[in-house]
Specification:
The protein has about 375 residues and is mainly alpha-helical. The chain is built from 14 helices and 4 strands. It has helices at about 10-15, 50-75, 85-110, 120-150, 155-160, 160-180, 180-185, 210-245, 250-280, 290-310, 315-320, 325-335, 340-350, 355-360; strands at about 20, 30, 185-190, 200. It has a two-stranded antiparallel ribbon with strand order 1-2. A two-stranded antiparallel ribbon has the order 3-4. Helix 3 (about 85-110) runs parallel beside helix 6 (about 160-180). The two termini are about 35 Å apart. Pfam families: 7tm_1 (PF00001). Interacts with IL8. Interacts with GNAI2. It is a multi-pass membrane protein. Keywords: Cell membrane, Chemotaxis, Disulfide bond, G-protein coupled receptor, Glycoprotein, Membrane, Phosphoprotein, Receptor, Transducer, Transmembrane, Transmembrane helix.
Length: about 375
Amino acid sequence: MNYLLLTNQEEQKSEENWDSWISLDNNTYVYPTDYEDSSPCERHVPGFNSLTLLVIYIIVFVFSLLGNSVVVFVVCSMSRGRASTDIYLMHLALADLLFCFTLPFWAVESHFGWIFGTLPCKFISSFQEASVYSGVFLLACISVDRYFAIVRATRVLSSRHLLVKVICGVVWLMSGLLSVPLAVQREEIFPLGLEHPICYENLTGESSDQWRVGLRVLRHTLGFFLPLVVMAFCYGWTVVTLFSTRSQQKHKAMRVILAVVLAFIFCWLPYNITVLIDTLYRGGSLEETCNVRYRVEALLEVTKVIAFLHCMVNPVLYAFIGEKFRNELLTALYKQGIISKKLWVSYRKGSAASVPSLRSRNTSVSV
């Protein structure tokens, strides 16, 4: 996690003897200030001070916690008709919950510095890393599941819930293993020029730059672009198949799933592209100047905020697009005695046409 260094431009301009500067993206790096400019490079991004990030992180945390908790509640309350996609979506909600639980720590750190010590730094960093990996892996699994259910017209993956649960377990195991390198290197450190400690990768030696770039390449390939290729292939064939059929139920079964994938791409693709560009500069593949550095920092801040918003987006899509999700939510609330039978019956009368879809095992809770 990266943090805003200084919010006062005058303080930044006065520190002309800094030996290093710290990037503002999620993977903090130290760069030597070996540029020929007579004054230090401007690092302040207007509108993104520490208080702004604190407020944004807390808002995202609250809405993500509420929305994804509702998704888990609805799926767990389903007495029958739980499809394989429902299980994947529940685990996706759990991944978003894990991600959002880390936001209060980063919110405090962005304003007050890392005050929690080295051990929490390792755990929180690994939790966030694992949640990002598990989220994209689960989306890839959903795309494969829909491919077999619609394109191949088979229920092998959709009907064997034990297999789906095993796949989810493997996803969580892989995500945990991939988060270990970051957890090992993260420590509470006191960098030169900062008043507060930060949670940072404490790397020294000639191989430190190679390690950082390697970690980023791993995250780019396994944590985004490779799953994105799988999703593009599976959903490409799925959409082609749906266009050739008149089944309205199958069309409905894809609306929310495609919306979830598009939301993921919209939130995370700009950030990953920006981080990739930043990686090329840091690895020495591209020549960097103060103007380029400032532009990259600005893009990192904007795209990072957009990426972090993703953990609260999916429940909103389910609520506004998923007809079955709304029905299942009202049914769960009625069973728990939260809403009256009159309201529940009234809503079901208004959505009587969708009752058959509620019992279909080939659709998901989000449909």
